[in-house]
Design a protein that fits this description.
- The protein is of the alpha+beta class.
- Helix content is 26%, strand content 45%.
- α2 (23-32) packs across α3 (53-65) and α6 (122-131) packs across α7.
- It is elongated and about 125 Å long.
- It starts with a helix and ends in a 5-residue tail after the last helix.
Length: 396
């Protein structure tokens, strides 16, 4: 029904009233002559009906033979609209441009969907396909989905099979991911627990293996704390994956320094530039920032059914940064040095238990320094693999 109404509007039709004479004879004559009537209504003042332009031209004979008079009430459809605005040349030009634009856009790729991905991000797959030549805005006639799938599959890790289908303005990427390879571990399964830094050992809890280091003794970086070589009761040995928990008391020096003639970076201003993005074509709105540093880009695209449409606004933020060589006073140097020292101290003690801290200041010439020595409890054990040959012994 919708298609029929659309065709009637496209070709044009009229609504008319026929009065006087014999109404039934008029309708019978219209039927005999093949004149199609619809929306027929019989009222006190006559018969109301609709027919095509060609049909109304044939009605005159039927109306004359039945003694009726037909008059047009209203005209509908594109031909009458064009005739009404025939002197306004912009309207037909606009219609032609609209049809051309619609025809052009229907030959472009508007959406790219990805199916079958569980571990690989959708953006990563789309980026690989775009590098292969298939992107939003490209022509559906020049796009080569077979070549794009081949190139994207070879350049993307984790994909065992990829297929690309183009239906209308939508490209669908169907992939099959590779099964994850098993994690490669040390084939020998032999580990020692060693010290990762110089310290005084205060706690040693072996979960598996033979404890070597003694509590309260000083251990050096790389020294074995828990050995993977285990002695049996029959004086033989076997090898295992040593594990355990080792806590040591460590001392670390931290230093912060400030010069009176340091160069500071100052942000003068933040500027924004907007860009219209349509089918991967970016149209800048405003002047570029040639002397500024690019910070970040914010995107806002139209969406339909949770799918990003190729029409949106891009916002680029820029900043102007200047270098200033400051002449700092002694008090300013001290405040800056303290701030830097506190930040470094917080970062260092975040995962350590602080025992004590010794802090000292040093000022000489045009430099201010703050020195600190931190004594902390921390985990110093780490697992390190070894081979049987390194032990100097063999299985018994």
């Amino acid at each position: 029904m919708f298609l029929l109404n659309f065709l009637r509007l496209f070709t044009g039709y009229v609504r008319f009233r026929a009065c006087g004479g014999f109404g039934e004879r008029f309708l019978n004559l219209c039927s005999q002559k093949g004149i199609v009537l619809w929306d027929v209504e019989t009222l006190n003042d006559g018969i109301y009906a609709s027919t095509s332009v060609e049909g109304y031209k044939k009605i005159r004979t039927a109306a004359k033979n039945s003694g009726m008079t037909a008059r047009i009430i209203k005209k509908y459809g594109l031909p009458f609209l064009v005739f009404k605005y025939r002197k306004r040349i912009g309207i037909p030009i606009g219609i032609v441009i609209f049809i051309l634009c619609l025809s052009f856009l229907s030959t472009r790729i508007w959406l790219i969907d990805v199916e079958g991905n569980n571990r690989i991000p959708e953006e990563y797959i789309i980026s690989a396909v775009e590098d292969a030549g298939l992107r939003i805005g490209c022509s559906v006639f020049t796009a080569d989905p077979v070549k794009a799938a081949l190139v994207a599959g070879n350049n993307t890790e984790g994909i065992s099979d990829i297929k690309i289908n183009i239906i209308g303005s939508r490209a669908t990427i169907r992939i099959k991911e590779q099964e994850p390879s098993p994690e490669i571990v040390n084939t020998t399964g032999l580990y020692n627990v060693v010290a990762n830094k110089d310290a005084q050992l205060v706690l040693l809890e072996p979960y598996c293996g033979t404890p070597i280091a003694k509590v309260l003794n000083t251990v050096l970086k790389g020294e074995v704390l828990i050995s993977g070589v285990v002695a049996n009761k029959d004086e033989s040995t076997h090898y295992s994956h040593a594990s355990g928990y080792a806590v040591g008391r460590t001392e670390t020096a931290i230093k912060s320094a400030v010069n009176s003639d340091e160069i500071f970076h100052k942000i003068e201003s933040n500027k924004r530039r907007y860009t219209l993005s349509f089918l991967s074509i970016e149209i800048p709105i405003g002047k570029g920032e040639s002397n500024s540093t690019f910070l970040l880009r914010k995107e806002k695209f139209l969406s339909f059914s949770n799918k990003k449409m190729p029409l949106g606004i891009l916002c680029d933020e820029y900043s102007s940064v200047t270098k200033n060589k400051a002449s700092l006073s002694e008090k300013q140097m001290e405040l800056i040095a303290i701030e830097r020292y506190v930040n470094e101290a917080e970062n260092y003690t975040e995962n350590r238990q602080l025992i004590s801290e010794k802090c000292s200041e040093k000022f000489g010439g045009n430099q201010k320094e703050i020195h600190g020595i931190f004594s902390c409890y921390e985990n110093i054990g780490k697992e390190e693999s070894f081979s049987i040959n390194e032990t100097g012994s063999s299985f018994q």
